[in-house]
């Protein structure tokens, strides 16, 4: 074994945990650029109007849903069409709890809503993966789940669907959902506009770094192995069903986080957040960005939701048309995703990946 | 010496077709056996039944005395059974290094992992292919990578289904040396399903001839070659 393969210090080992072959970018230049971009994002609200900051915060919310689909589809090979079910139901769960609780408990409501989604996904995932449902039927089954949730919530318009002070509201949705708040009384912080943006940016940074560690850990290798060849993976002694189930639960947590933040920002959640169009959009963000690249998915989700919003102001129908064309183009011309293809092109222009770099990432990563 | 594998009256059917008809034999720990037989005699079906991909309809399979038939494939693998399948089964989109990393991460701790990977690369002669995508390797090298992945997890029993299929004579020779080395130096029990008689001759291991879903004959290659009934099985009896 050559000496450069093992991490030299504990610091190297800690920093190495964020780098590996499952995520793009590992050089000092990448990290300097990354943290410079993060600093600019955090400073941005100081120099922009509340409305613009709030709106951009709203666009960031969708990234959690995009990452949910990314780790399932791109990294583990599970094509789930129904992550919006966890997104929408988490929004409803947060709404019901936060409307009925004092504002200082809104964070507790948020965490509980996410945990409920993870528990629900564990139950659904157990049926899917331990029941041996094949990949095609997983797509159909998960799509059916989100459409079922939409249909059921569309039928909740009567007074019998009022839980405490929270009315489910049928197809009009649930209104009056309070924003997230930390603490009580004078010293409390209510997350709206700029504070909401900082909250989202902080959560996104944490999720991004956390996913980098997860994907480059031994567990991440198993996710990728499961995507590539589940049978071969189990013949090495790994329980593929467990790998799929745990990833599904993590992905539901991410989608649930997005749903809670969406309901908190919007003060509203409706069944349409789980409808066919809503279920299709994350697939397009992930396919267009690059399925197995979390940074590409972040960039693509933000960019496409911004375009979607701009087109919706003028002519909403063109937005869906554009997305359909984009999906077709991606599948036919950029199968690895537009953003990933561009990034790979830039990297290859600079230098070819060397064997020693691969060795260092792979063997010195932990 | 106790048997590493003990197979008793194992039966397996697909619909109305009975492929394994009361298969019974044992393999002593640390030894090598070659499984011979014409196409369709049930060799691959037996291997898949042994590793849990097929559930037997009857009989029992024991690994070092522990009953393993009916267990899930990952549970059997965890008990020390490693397999190279007939069709190369590697992670084609990942690099050679990543393939080996996945193979060893369960059995080798983080501190030992790099050494095990380097040692395996050296053993299979793919040290210079570490960063190469596995799917871009030649067919023979893909076979070696899969054998390397199976060996790297340090199993008690190594199963190789046609390990030299599609290999050049030179590659076949190197595979012989590789298999003999892991059997003799590491004491690993090995079961090989093979058609290439030159490869079988080089291995110089006892042979089990499978025919019609049962063990038809056991003996050395010389005995197999001189047995007229086996010639009939392979080439048909002359009228």
Tell me the layout of helices and strands.
The complex is a heterodimer of chains A (about 375) and B (about 240).
Chain A: H1 10-16, H2 28-43, H3 50-76, H4 83-100, H5 106-130, H6 135-154, E1 162-163, E2 166-167, E3 174-175, E4 181-182, E5 189-190, H7 193-216, H8 218-228, H9 230-235, H10 240-266, E6 268-269, H11 276-289, H12 294-333, H13 338-350, H14 355-363
Antiparallel strand pairs in A: 1-2, 3-6, 4-5
Chain B: E1 3-14, E2 17-28, E3 32-36, H1 43-50, E4 58-63, E5 66-67, H2 73-78, E6 81-84, H3 96-104, H4 110-124, H5 139-152, E7 157-161, H6 169-185, E8 189-193, H7 197-203, E9 207-211, E10 214-219, H8 221-225, H9 228-235
Parallel strand pairs in B: 3-8, 3-9, 6-7, 7-8
Antiparallel strand pairs in B: 1-2, 1-4, 4-5, 9-10
Oligomer: heterodimer
What is the terminal-to-terminal distance of chain B?
44 Å
Indicate the low-confidence ranges of chain B by residue numbers: none
Structural class of chain A: mainly alpha
- What strand line-up does the widest sheet of chain A have? 1-2
Largest interface: A-B, 31 and 37 residues
User: For the largest beta sheet of chain B, what order do the strands appear in spatially?
Assistant: 6-7-8-3-9-10
Strand content of chain B: 25-35%
> pLDDT under 50 segments of chain A (min length 5)?
1-6
- Characterize the largest beta sheet of chain B: strand count, sense, and whether it forms a barrel: 6 strands, mixed
Report the C-alpha radius of gyration of chain B, rounded. 18 Å
The SSE string of chain A, one letter per element, is HHHHHHEEEEEHHHHEHHHH
Number of helices of chain A: 14
